[in-house]
Automatic annotation (TrEMBL):
Protein name: Hypothetical glycosyl hydrolase 6
Keyword Hydrolase in annotation: yes
Pfam families: GHL6
GO MF assignments: hydrolase activity
Keywords in alphabetical order: Hydrolase
Length: 665
């Protein structure tokens, strides 16, 4: 079967245009785009404004098109791009319409819980459940397809407009269409007004269903017209889209880009992922460039997890100064020059880390399990344990769980189909590390067989109750267990299975102040963790990942990573003599293994600074000596030796990142 263009590695460049940019020089833009190294151009087409001479009465034609001799920016861009071997994707945005169109069709509009329209800079927000999205958007798409041989569509802001561009919370849409549809879905429940409403979780499920159905209909419609058009479109995407940005006021989680790409690639390795890296620091500051090193991290993490990179700028190239494009271009061109090494890669880590499903829990509960996930993510990163993220909602569909030695489930329940998939993994010889209340149902019973507990007896999650409680190493503790760790987040008192082994000692609370009275902690018979009788399942009945995420003590990391390596067994996982700031990822294609090493030493609270070069070596279990080992960034072969089933690679200095290609015999 012939591959579509998006099923091969590609690089995109987005010019997000203002209405005043309709007269842009498309040849000059393509000069910049091709010099940068991109082979796909994403440009504005229709929706809020048409950048072509639309004849539809419910679409506003950009008045600045009069500056062009042709009166048609989209047409000029498609012709020039194809002449120069660049594909063109059309950006569509149906989230807003003009006031005039809104006045003619008030039934299309978003209506907030307060009964008011959502008006932003003279544009009126629309509702995905109403006819503008459900019907008229198809006519706009058809008008573009009828006129232009575009290579695909990107659908922007495809959602319910709960939050506006200024970050103001506007609530769930409460127009007549939404009220009626939600009532049918929920059995007559009232629409929520926000996250604190009792029906909000139901509304989240309903709204997700509306968008899924709509995106699938659009996908089918476009494919009937042009099967070769790639779609970036929520649930029905040919290309999964992630915007990498550094939103003002949001805590920066430094590996967010890599985690997102990894999750998609593990669940659906046949789906390409596009990471659209934002060149400015946030929407309110579109003219101010992001820090160069931060922008470059988006690209390094994208490549390391098997994604396709994209740069997103405002306006035509060169109109606004974005100095960061220089280093990004080097990365894009490096990948292009080594396209054979990057083709057909699939995730190949020996560890799977489950990411909690945000729709399977309340917002508060999900925040807790997400913190657990992030802490365990950091422990694996810094412990040089190559791993892949697997979304909880995708466990049942993930095609190759059997490649994993260990699967980690962090403080979250599983849907029945996911639990069945984990049960099969376990029956086939896989090992499990479970933390907190992972795989425990609402009644406190295990969802899986072979667990080291019978049930949860009580949950202690009151911060005051947990103060001055600890997990301590005892005489039987493994060598990776720290002598003393505080317990934070939650601790679950459990009834152990008959054949379970209890490890480490839980110390009950004692006085912690004043210092003269800070003593008296004693073992209370509760475990620090438990191991099943067959040694295949380890359960940590407290939130060790959340402890590391919130408290940062390296003992949490050592214990978590040590448990993973202990479960995997000797000679299974890669080891490294490297600083903890380097993350190692692993991908595979027929005949080759590719390691990426990302240098996080430049990590700052809200950005990345220049990294400190790091050197070292890795030791990789391998069945035979390889044909060769190359470092793509350094541009040379790596000194290596093969001893007793282990490949030892001497690494070049790693600045931002390195890619090591191991050619297998």
């Amino acid at each position: 079967m012939t591959q579509r263009w998006w099923q091969r590695p590609f690089a995109m460049f987005q010019t997000n245009l203002r209405e005043i940019d309709a007269g842009m020089d498309v040849e000059a833009a393509l000069d910049a785009i091709t010099a940068y190294g991109a082979d796909v151009w994403l440009i504005n087409a229709g929706g809020i404004l048409s950048f072509y001479p639309s004849d539809l009465p419910f679409q506003t034609r950009n008045p600045a098109l009069s500056e062009r001799a042709s009166g048609d920016l989209l047409g000029d861009a498609v012709e020039a791009a194809h002449r120069r071997g660049v594909r063109l994707m059309a950006r569509m945005d149906f989230s807003k319409i003009s006031k005039a169109i809104a006045d003619d069709h008030p039934e299309w509009c978003f209506i907030g819980p307060d009964g008011e329209r959502q008006v932003y800079n003279d544009l009126v927000s629309t509702c995905p459940s109403a006819d503008y999205y459900q019907q008229r958007s198809f006519e706009i798409i058809d008008e573009v397809l009828d006129r232009y041989p575009v290579d695909g569509f990107f659908f922007n802001w495809f959602g319910f407009n709960e939050v506006d561009y200024s970050g103001v919370y506007r609530g769930p849409c409460a127009n007549d269409t939404s009220r009626k549809s939600f009532a049918e879905f929920s059995g007559g429940a009232e629409l929520p007004t926000g996250p604190d409403s009792p029906t909000y979780d139901q509304w989240r499920s309903w709204s997700r269903g509306v968008l899924k159905d709509l995106s699938e209909r659009i996908h089918d419609h476009v494919k009937q017209r042009n099967p070769d058009a790639g779609l970036i479109l929520r649930d029905a995407a040919d290309i999964v889209f992630h915007e990498a940005n550094n939103k003002v006021g949001r805590e920066l989680w430094h590996p967010a880009t890599g985690a997102m790409v990894s999750g998609v690639r593990s669940e659906s390795p046949e789906l390409p992922v596009l990471v659209n890296a934002v060149s400015f620091i946030d929407m309110p500051y579109r003219m101010a460039a992001e820090r160069t090193e931060h922008f470059a991290q988006y690209f390094a993490q994208t490549l390391a997890r098997g994604g396709n990179p994209s740069a997103y700028i405002m306006g035509p190239p060169g109109e606004i100064d974005y100095p960061l494009l220089g280093q990004a271009s080097e990365i894009v061109r490096l990948r292009k020059a080594n396209s054979d090494s990057y083709a057909d890669l699939r995730p190949a880590g020996s560890i799977g880390l489950v990411r909690p499903d945000p729709l399977a829990q309340t917002l508060t509960r999900h925040a807790e399990s997400e913190a657990e996930f992030r802490g365990l993510y950091a422990a694996l990163q810094e412990g040089h344990c190559p791993f892949d993220v697997i979304p909880a909602e995708g466990l049942a569909q993930a095609p190759d769980l059997d490649r994993l030695a260990v699967l980690i489930i962090p403080d979250c329940p599983l849907a029945s189909d996911a639990a069945s998939a984990v049960e099969r993994f376990r029956s086939a010889g896989g090992r499990l590390l479970i933390t907190g209340r992972g795989t425990i149902d609402a009644d406190g019973r295990p969802q899986l067989s072979g667990m080291p507990i019978r049930r949860v007896l009580q949950t202690r999650d009151d911060p005051e109750e947990l103060k001055a409680t600890y997990v301590s190493a005892d005489a039987d503790a493994p060598d990776f267990a720290p002598p003393m760790l505080p317990v934070y987040g939650s601790y679950h008192e459990v009834e152990s299975a008959a054949d379970a082994r209890s490890m480490l000692a839980h110390l009950g609370a004692a006085r912690f102040g004043p210092p003269e009275k800070a003593y008296g902690n004693q073992p209370d018979g509760r475990p620090g963790y438990l191991v099943s009788g067959d040694g295949a399942v380890a359960l940590v009945p407290w939130t060790i990942g959340r402890c590391y995420y919130d408290l940062g003590l390296d003992g949490f990391r050592r214990l978590a990573a040590g448990l993973v390596r202990s479960l995997a067994g000797a000679g299974v996982l890669l080891t490294a003599e490297l600083d903890e700031c380097v993350e190692i990822t692993m991908q595979r294609a027929p005949g080759r293994l590719v390691l990426h090493l990302i240098n996080f030493s430049g990590r700052r609270r809200k950005s990345f600074a220049p990294p400190i070069p790091v050197s070292g070596r890795v030791r990789l279990p391998l069945s035979a000596a390889p044909r060769g080992v190359r470092a793509l960034v350094a541009g040379r072969s790596c000194p290596s030796s093969y001893v007793d089933g282990e490949l030892i690679i001497e690494l070049p200095d790693i600045e931002l990142f390195e890619a090591i290609v191991i050619e297998e015999k």
